[in-house]
């Protein structure tokens, strides 16, 4: 396994609110590898922002350690860097926010130049760099506008240019698309994906919108009550969610369960089994169900089917009841697996009798 | 003119009690405290915002000291402050009476008022902008100058206008320690001697003065604001 670029270990964050102590993040460990687009989803108040703010120590953990790119930022309740060093290190971690947080009394290009204030480049090179970044986000022609003259999506683009000014290795997006309309949201997400590819940037994407994560992330973690309750590669978490909350977030799965329940089958016959089949988009054109019947004479009846676009790839999900004797059913599973279909046996009691 | 406003004309232009002298005294008593008290007030206003709990240079002791100093001087009625700090005035400018002596209490009175106004103006800067600057790796100096002061500049102009106008009304009380000015003319040569025409003209001149400050302030605030559509 590659060395993680972000390594948060046993992070706890508590706040005092009057007399009450709020435990915002509870013993969370999280490793993010270089080049990942790591989505962190959860409802507001789940502790996502607080957790992610410990990466650049905008939020100091109460306990735990923060190691970025092999360098210890925080451990043993102590910041491991001087404030000046921390300021320098923060330039390696870009961050964008829900409300953009641009400086409104300066022009678009001045906003980007503000981030370059401590850069070693001379003035001309800084200006050139700022214009290049604005070109990257598609706003070169609006360099001399003031932020309020731009749309929300454009303002977020400026803040992305600002965040990238010092060639960071990490970009943190804190609900950056939550204040935007769907079209702008998708454009911003695609831009993040494009930057991730082009600049080999590691992206941490906090959001409460599953669609955002589905579109660009390759890994995801689901947070609730200050803890990560589920994590893993996007497709796995998305298609086989283990936790109830995750199922709520991955709407597709909830729809599947609802549909299955609507069939109102009390139980399956002894020679029947319920399977979830997950297959990559490349296999979409072949009909597996027909192949099953032709090759093995096994009947599979489809109860639910759906195709999702996950990380740019179409992924199909089928819920099927396979009918046949033990041997036939085993052969069917093997046949499917040989055809690169992920087969998961679903305990039907969980769907009809819980 | 002399038949409508006989006493106004009688006071004349120059001389110790002349209109020109009073106007210059009022300007003098406005400009210097505005600069001296304004600078100190600005520093205190910034200090209050950056050292407050959750501020970028959080420091409970310093915050508490600044806060108490400002509160105390804000609480003392100016006419009492004039008398109360006479020994300090003596030590600084060598006299307790006259226009120059008034600069000390005026600066102090103005500083305390202005510090609170600056504090409010700076607090109007969205905390998110401060956080974004920190995330970029800005130094505290960058945050104070490029974020707090620059982002609130239009608001700062507005509160400065309000503060200057309140300073003009403080100068009117400075007559109590022989500082002269238009306020003194209105009271000593107008009200006290039943010369209503003098009071009227002095009042109109003060109003004009305030109006000029207000108009310039509004224009500047509008010119420097790019935040509101």
Automatic annotation (TrEMBL), chain A:
GO terms for biological process: amino acid transport. SMART domains: AAA, NIL. CDD domains: ABC_MetN_methionine_transporter. Keywords: Amino-acid transport, ATP-binding, Cell membrane, Membrane, Nucleotide-binding, Translocase, Transport. Signal peptide: none annotated. Residues 8-250 form the ABC transporter domain. GO terms for molecular function: ATP binding; ATP hydrolysis activity. InterPro entries: AAA+_ATPase, ABC_transporter-like_ATP-bd, ABC_transporter-like_CS, ACT-like_dom_sf, MetN_ABC, MetN_ABC_transporter-like, NIL_domain, P-loop_NTPase. PANTHER family: AMINO ACID IMPORT ATP-BINDING PROTEIN (PTHR43166), METHIONINE IMPORT ATP-BINDING PROTEIN METN (PTHR43166:SF30). This is D-methionine ABC superfamily ATP binding cassette transporter, ABC protein. It comes from Limosilactobacillus panis DSM 6035.
